[in-house]
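Hi Prof. W.,

I finally got the SWIM-type domain-containing protein prediction working! I wasn't sure whether to trim anything, so I left the full sequence exactly as given:
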Amino acid sequence: MTARGFAAFPKVKRRVATTWWGKAWVKALEDTALDTTLLRLGRRYAHAGVVGPITVSPGRLHAQVHDDDTVYSTTVLVPELTEVQWGRFLDRVAEHAGHIAALLDNDMPRDLVAAAEESGVDLLPGIGDLEPDCDCEGWELPCRHAAALAFQVGWLLDADPFVLLLLKGKPEQELLDALKQRVAGPVGTRTSVVVSRDVAGQLPAKPGLPATTPVVLAVEPPPGYDAAELTALMEIAAKRARALLRSGTLDE
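And this is what came out:
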């Protein structure tokens, strides 16, 4: 599935974004806008519950926004990564089991984003990267409707960083499959270790992890995901982490 749909947010009072990557998204919107008054109005619309269900697909956000008695079709376009850039990003993620675990635990490590940037891969948008489009009569970029949509997407990013990765061009399952291929190693070398979302990132920083420490899957997988597939991915990541610990090459 290359698109995800999200139910409309009800009228609510909340911060625009709370995670560091959600705030970076909002900053890109604010830095791009030419009219701060419209941004404030867009923030008000985001909290007023006038934005309809949001569809997220590679390079594109879309929602219908209700304004008085009119419904506007609103879109925000985002630059996608090239296949070469995706390869560099996936290589970075696969180098560290903790990065895989963090993503599965709905976290976006700063060092992962920084490492990706060093490889020429910009995950987070910058000035001018958010391209709004709306069929309202406003000429501003963004108009209040597009600003409201973009602000609400900051909330989606807070809850699930895979939303950002989908926007950049890859759905979650495709990413997990690609990571599994990168860290699998020779056939027949898997260990019996299971790592869950709850214990993700709890591997010790120093060598000395027991080779056969079992970790039981403690949470149900999200709807639409197979527990065995997630378990296999984390088994492979744990095996790679142990190999790095034994070799003494795991980055501090």
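DSSP finds nine helices and five strands in the chain. Does that look reasonable to you?

Thanks,
D.
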